Amino acid sequence: MKIAIIGTGNLGSSIAKGLIKNKSFTSLYLSDKNTSAVIAFKDEPYVTITSNNSEAVEKSDIVLFALQPRHIENVLSGVAPLIRADHVVLSVAAGFEISRIESIIGSDKNIIRVMPNTAISIGKSMTCLSANDKGQEQIELAKDIFNQLGTTMVIPEEQIQAATVICASGIAFWMRLVRATTQGAIQLGFEAHEAHDLAVQTCFGSASLLIESGRHPEQEIDRVTTPSGCTIEGLNAMEHQGLSSALIQGIVSSFEKINQIKKS
């Protein structure tokens, strides 16, 4: 596959790392006005670093626009005449709807919105996909690409905003929970590096249990809570302080904010 990534910020670079790690291309163009952001990739086989978006589009079959919403319209307009009917156009711009992309490059193009998270750099992303009518023909290709970089789910476009909060912003939410657990472990007497390792591995184990067992979280909680035990004491104290409520409120606040971005 001949792939181009336009925009190599945190997310674009993470996707590039994942593609390079999995050798998921025959050629990869990384285009950004600030090429120093991806200079680490300059010696990778079949990878070209450029600041010329037109060159990247012309020499690729799959073009991924990893740009912020305020930049994507101008960049799309600049390369619109170069986008062919057989191009697969992927966009990770939050709040930038397929209809707006169609208004710039045409509804006869294969357009797929992609919402991964930064864990894509290590092949562990939860990536949601949504396509226009023409893009439905290429949705399996998009799944094939991103299944190599984690797990995919095809959803209606109206759910992309919510998926952004749960999956992309969710990385930060889980990081904060891991950090809080680390701080608690330090208070209980562990060295910082020990506390970090304990928190990270326990978080990883918890997620792995749910994935491999298919059980509901409450079933796993029941397995480690005993009558009058320390686990239920801790869980109840957390709930009294509003742990679940705070997390839900944070998710809803992020969703409200992303909808404001969408309207701007």
Description:
- With 264 residues, the protein is α/β, with parallel strands linked by helices.
- Helices cover 52% and strands 15% of the residues.
- It has helices spanning 10-22, 53-58, 69-79, 98-105, 139-147, 160-187, 192-213, 217-224, 230-240, 243-263; strands spanning 2-6, 27-31, 47-50, 62-65, 88-91, 110-115, 125-131, 150-154.
- Strands 3-2-1-4-5-6-7-8 form an eight-stranded mixed sheet, sandwiched between helices.
- Helix 6 (160-187) packs across helix 7 (192-213) and helix 6 (160-187) packs antiparallel against helix 10 (243-263).
- The longest helix is centred in the middle third of the chain and has 28 residues, at 160-187.
- The two termini are 35 Å apart.
- The model has no long low-confidence stretch (mean pLDDT 93).
Feature tags:
elongated; alpha/beta; eight-stranded mixed beta sheet; 52% helix
Summarize the structure.
By secondary structure, this protein is α/β, with parallel strands linked by helices. It has helices at 10-22, 53-58, 69-79, 98-105, 139-147, 160-187, 192-213, 217-224, 230-240, 243-263, and strands spanning 2-6, 27-31, 47-50, 62-65, 88-91, 110-115, 125-131, 150-154.
